[in-house]
Amino acid sequence: QVELVESGGGLVQAGGSLRLSCAASGRTVSSLIMGWFRQAPGKEREFVAAIKRTSPNTYYAWNADSAKGRFTISRDDAKNTVFLRMSSLKPEDTALYYCAVGAMESSHIKYAGSYDYWGQGTQVTVSS
What we know:
This protein has 128 residues and is mainly beta. Helix content is 0%, strand content 48%.
């Protein structure tokens, strides 16, 4: 069993930055894929970014407001923690951000159903 606890969310103005953290406990997650998803009110949960231990090791969303270029995912396996650095934030980035962990093929990395463990989420609100 893995417990995930997110932190670092909050209220920020458009153009600002935040760094989310997700600490895992219960077992080491160094061999697992760690990801971030988000869910805005009235919308489905969507993939943001994921990272695995081996190369190529980072994956980002490819939608119109792509996380790539604005968001950076990283991990510290010594601390069993994954981070999401978000910059140039936009009001449409407002959502509840979830951390997730699982073992899967790289082709499945963007699907929420591929992950086995989820945190409770941390709220990110971007004001215009």
